[in-house]
């Protein structure tokens, strides 16, 4: 008996609903070296990050998968950029170990930073002081100084790109996602990314007048401000007002949050959030700043536990972010 076209269609439809969702076609040379596990470590604006295990050593790594759609028109830059990024080795930087390609995607194997994102970890922490904050900022600056020494500008420094190496209490803080912004984003995109975190962007970037090393130091300023107070220095109801606020360059140390914070900390924030990029402190200079140098010494004055009020501020930000993430996923 011949099956009618109608039955064929029904059968095809039925088969389709029974099919498993498509699993990505990993390049075979990648699969020879690494086994990709089911664990998803995170989702960013461009990438999905999965866990993978090196077959011979059994060591876990992160696998960053970037769809080629995201780099459309800039494929030619990928190799040269990644060649530079492959050279980078520093305890405060997530380094790259391998690069693979398929028709639709690029796969980058990097250090696994299993300790989670900076602010998420701080929310979990019961107790942390100004000195703890200084030690975190010092590590960000160490990584940045190294990148800048190699003429790599991050351009997208923000809390989501700062990950702890392990869940341990004294784990290194590591910078991820550097360098790629050059390929992934058009400069104009910074202005139009609806779900990014534009609050960390320097005013000269918004004015489209500068993409040099100082932009990273501005971002450190915003991160440091937030680490100490739980709220961001620049704020707006919507993106337009946020940009106006950043462009004005004005921020305040609200007494309710800052009265217990040392003058040295405020001075470093001011040096980082210096409006003119050529006058802004560099990473090397910031490492010599007294607030950072004292971070390794003994506590000299009684310090307040910042955890409760920082947690209060951050958790409202977190909830905004999760709403944004859900919305973008939805769209
Ligand atoms: P995007 O470039 O799309 O922003 P990211 O590299 O920032 O992508 O990764 C997105 C998320 O995945 C991060 O915010 C983090 O939670 C997680 N992630 C990224 N890299 C690693 C890593 N090396 N180890 C563990 N988790 C990671
Ligand atoms: Mg990111």
Give an account of the 3D structure:
The N and C termini lie far apart (47 Å). With 331 residues, this protein is of the alpha+beta class. The chain has helices at 5-18, 28-33, 75-87, 118-124, 130-149, 181-184, 189-192, 203-206, 214-229, 239-248, 255-258, 263-272, 283-288, 290-293, 307-330; strands at 34-43, 47-54, 60-67, 96-101, 105-110, 162-164, 173-175. The strands form 2 sheets. Strands 1-2-3-5-4 form a 5-stranded antiparallel sheet. A two-stranded antiparallel sheet has the order 6-7. It folds into 2 domains: 32-111, Phosphorylase Kinase, domain 1 (2-Layer Sandwich), CATH 3.30.200; 116-323, Transferase(Phosphotransferase) domain 1 (Transferase(Phosphotransferase), domain 1, Orthogonal Bundle). The structure holds adenosine-5'-diphosphate and magnesium ion. Adenosine-5'-diphosphate (ADP) binds at residues 41-47, 49, 62, 64, 94, 110-113, 117, 160-161, 163, 176-177.
Offer a few descriptive terms.
331 residues, alpha+beta, Transferase(Phosphotransferase), domain 1, disordered C terminus, binds adenosine-5'-diphosphate
Short description:
The chain is α+β, with helices and mostly antiparallel strands. 44% of the residues lie in helices and 13% in strands.
Sheet/helix structural class: alpha+beta
Percent of sequence in beta strands = 5-15%
Helix-strand string: HHEEEHEEHHEEHHHHHHHHHH
Strand element count = 7
CATH homologous superfamily descriptor of the largest domain: Transferase(Phosphotransferase) domain 1
What's the end-to-end separation, in Å?
47 Å
Number of domain modules = 2
Level-1 CATH class name of the largest domain: Mainly Alpha
CATH architecture of the largest domain: Orthogonal Bundle
Say which molecules are bound, naming each kind only once: adenosine-5'-diphosphate, magnesium ion
Described by strand count, sense and barrel closure, the largest sheet is: 5 strands, antiparallel
